[in-house]
Specification:
- The protein is mostly helical.
- It has one domain: Up-down Bundle (Four Helix Bundle (Hemerythrin (Met), subunit A)), CATH 1.20.120.
- It has helices at residues 3-27, 32-36, 45-63, 78-101, 111-134; strands at 38-40, 43-44.
- The protein has a two-stranded antiparallel sheet.
- α1 (3-27) runs antiparallel to α4 (78-101) and α3 (45-63) packs antiparallel against α5.
- The longest helix has 25 residues, at 3-27.
Length: 138
Amino acid sequence: MTEQAASAAEGWRARLAASRAALLRALEGVTERDFEAAFDDDRSLVVALAELAMHERAAVARVRGGESTAKVPEKPLAPQVIHDLAGARYQIERLLADSAAGDGADATLTAERVSALVDAIADRELAIAARIAARPRG
C-alpha cells in the first residue's frame, strides 16, 4: 500500500464516519412509530433508510463493475434496516481496503471512482439525516 493510497482511504473513511454519525444523531429519539410514519414522498422513514442501504450496495457493485440485486423489502422493519445499513457500510469498508491495497487486482477501483462513490454515499446520507432532523416531532 502506498502512502498516498493509505491517506486517501483514511480521508474517505473519515468522510463516511462523519456522515454516518450525522445520520445516527438524527435518529436519536426516533420511536418505532416514527419509523413507520410518513416521511417524504409518501414513504416511511424505515423505507427511506432501506432505500439508502440499497443504494449504497448498488453503488459499490457498480464501482466493482457488477450489478446489485439488492431490493427494498416489502415491509421493512427498523432493526433489520439498521442492520442492513451496517452491512452496506461493511461492503464499502472492504472496497476501501481493496482500493488502498493497490495491488492492481481490481482495475475498476481507481481513486476517482472510489472518491466519487464516497462523495455520493456521504452526500445521500447527510441529506437524509438533515431531512430526519428537520421533520416535525410529535
